[in-house]
Amino acid sequence: MDRITVRDPTDVATARRRVAGLASQLGYNETEAGRVAIVVTELAQNLLRHGGGGEILAGADATGEAALEVLALDKGPGMADVAACLRDGFSTGGTPGNGLGAVQRMSRELVIHSRPGGGPRGGPWGGPWGGPGGGPGGGPGGGTAVLARLGGKAAPVARTAATLCVPKPGETVCGDSACVMPRPDGTIGVLVADGLGHGPQAAAASAEAVRLFRKHPAAALVDLLGILHAGLRATRGAAIAVAVIDPAARQVTYGGVGNIAGFITDSGGTRRMVSHSGTAGHTAGRMQAFRYPMHHRPVLVMFSDGLATSWSPDGHAGLFELDPTLIAAVLYRDHARGRDDASVVVWKG
To answer: Which Pfam families does the protein's record reference (predicted)?
Structure first.
């Protein structure tokens, strides 16, 4: 996804221009691109007025339906009443109150997750952002995440998976890649690949991992790890992890090489999944698959080391009931280290 940091009013124009350009690349006409520009402007202005700044992320919907997804993420005070904030004329910032109401009218879908208690001191979780109890080093603080979908099919479709790949600050390409795809036997394959380092060469390595993953949709997991390891020898190499989800058997098979983390959370609790050390394409130890049961309403999450690991899903009450893209975005916002590419995949059963 394209990432635009919003810290001052000039960033609003930057966000509007870049996301409108992305809409044009997706084939949106002038009227549709104008609607996108209004949505991005309202979201970016809200980040400044109410969130103390934040980030706009934008990219094509992973379902391939040509919808544009726009995310606005902040660590501000949050909304005590989301429904009230969606009403035209409602304002807490001394403005006309057209923001979220206008965004809702112009979006095909609008989903909001808000957690009151944020701001510069992290609210009830204590500590400044980035320190204990707030941000990458601890549990989540307050903040708001808004997901607007524009264009694409007229009727919303049920989404079970999302991929979110965000480049390292200052980079224009992301060295991480991710993929979710159906397999011929009715299972679902998931890949996260983190190219060594960052920049174009890292992006080339992770993109090659995705290409090989798609080329071998029926391969057993251990065989697939071997294919990826061999196929990445001509690249910089990558950390990789693969999950094969079997909804009928209520089971996940998982294996990886390198620093990709994963867990399943459901009615049976949270189970962290195991990868072996190494770098696919260079040095890899034993290729091994591990099996994990799935219980009622499972959610699988996999992420690169662009996110910290010292947090628990239990600290995100209610989040895993939401849209997969919004889940991925909130986890990115709360736990990204800020010094590397970051990728998150979410699948919901």
So the answer is: HATPase_c_2, SpoIIE
